[in-house]
Amino acid sequence: PPLVADLKKARSRGEIFLVYQPQVNLADEEVVGVEALVRWSHPIRGLVSPNEFIPLAEAHGLINSLGSWVLEEACRQAASWDEDVLKGVAISVNVSPLQLAAPGFADMVQQIEHKTGLATERLILEITESSMVRDNERGFRLLDELRRRGVHIAIDDFGTGYSSLSYLRDLPSDYLKIDRSFVRDVPGKPEAEAIARAVVAVGKSLGYQIVAEGIETRQQADFLQSIWCDKGQGYLYAHPMRAGELADWARKRT
Ligand code: G
Ligand code: G
Ligand code: MN
Ligand code: NA
Predict the structure, then answer these.
(1) Under DSSP, is residue 43 helix (H, G, I), strand (E, B) or coil?
(2) How far is the CA of 36 from the centre of ligand 3 (A)?
(3) What is the spatial distance between Cα 227 and Cα 113, in angstroms, rounded to a whole number?
(4) Which of 24, 40, 180, 235 maximizes ligand 2 atoms within 8 Å of its Cβ, making it the mutation to test the pocket?
(5) What pLDDT, in 10s, does the model give residues 225-247?
(6) Fewer CB within 10 Å, N or C, the chain?
(7) Which of 18, 54, 58 to mutate to test the pocket of ligand 1 (most atoms within 8 A of CB)?
(8) Residue 94 alpha carbon, nearest atom of ligand 2
(9) Which stretches of the chain are assigned E, i.e. beta strand?
(10) Which residues does 136 contact at the CB level (< 8 Å), separation at least 6?
(11) From CA 162, how far away is CA 228, in angstroms rounded?
């Protein structure tokens, strides 16, 4: 049977769940946030990557309900953490461009915050560079509206799209996440180092906080800290984990 038929039933069958990956301040390695990442455990195929089922959900009109569920689950979880290290940290949630385009998105976000009791300032919505195409007046107004309500915005996978500097200047947003394809080759590859330095310098001078993703080695972390990148995320610190494992991980860190 086509995978989409299974995907339609996956939520009600309890096959969809979230894992969480910590983000740290590079300067002191304190945990400052957690990114929620969706997973699908298919009864026959095993784990299906979101790279496969998110596009499927988008193509078949399932992304809004899936996305709302992810957001609510992540907010509920974050509101309930009471381990010292996790209390009050930010929660980042990936959002599909189709969700942003759906009418009432900002109200839906607000309702979920009310329902789960998550403080608005703790929520970061991650959008991809390409979901905010240039001259997207409506998209810009939506991000403005969300930020006026206290939600923070991160540009995910930064550097892989076609952002111009004027776009970076005008986009209502708080964080830039340097794509891990650039992190992979630092330190050592002069071109990768140059790109990382440039993103941090331009981003910070435009008021963004910079997050590096995919940090796997101490050398990468040290290099990124030396160029004043603010935060980091990657296997060096922790893999994405189920909520219970994350709580154990957090307790061990204190
Ligand atoms: O977690 P992993 O590396 O397998 O994620 C693969 C891709 O799926 C990444 O680009 C990630 O941003 C995306 N992704 C993970 N969880 C979500 C989600 O809840 N919503 C959306 N829209 N994308 C997600
Ligand atoms: O596109 P986005 O940044 O949302 O994707 C996050 C994805 O990156 C997650 O699926 C996660 O599993 C993966 N990831 C997180 N840390 C690392 C890392 O250190 N190395 C690699 N290769 N992937 C990572
Ligand atoms: Mn992300
Ligand atoms: Na990314």
Answers:
(1) coil
(2) 8
(3) 35
(4) 180
(5) 999 999 999 999 999 999 999 99
(6) N
(7) 54
(8) 4
(9) 16-25, 31-42, 46-48, 90-94, 123-128, 152-158, 175-178, 209-212, 231-232
(10) none
(11) 24
| Atom of ligand 2 lying closest to residue 21 CA | 15
Q: Whose CA is nearest to atom 1 of ligand 1?
A: 37
Q: Where do the domains of the chain lie, and which CATH numbers do they carry?
A: 3-253 (3.20.20.450)
Distance 1 CA to ligand 4 centre (A): 31
Question: Does residue 128 line the site of ligand 2, with CB under 6 A?
Answer: no
Write down the ipTM of this complex. Answer: 0.96
Answer yes or no: is the C-beta of 139 below 6 A from any ligand 2 atom: no
Q: Which two tokens stand for residue 15?
A: 């096959």
- AA letter at 106: A
Helix or strand run (H / E) with residue 147? helix 137-148
Query: Helix, strand, or coil here: 152?
Result: strand
* CA dist., res. 196 & res. 219, Å (int): 14
List all residues whose CB is within 6 A of at least one atom of ligand 1: 37-38, 49-51, 54, 70, 94-96
Mean pLDDT, rounded, for 80-87: 91
Task: Label residues 204-238 b or e (16+ Cβ within 10 Å = b).
Answer: eeeebbbbbbbbeeeebbebbbebebbbbbbebbb
SS3 175: strand
- Asked whether the beta carbons of 112 and 71 are under 8 A apart, the reply is yes
- Look at residues 254, 252, 182 and name the one whose alpha carbon lies nearest to residue 214: 182
pLDDT of residue 146: 97
Strands 152-158 and 123-128: parallel
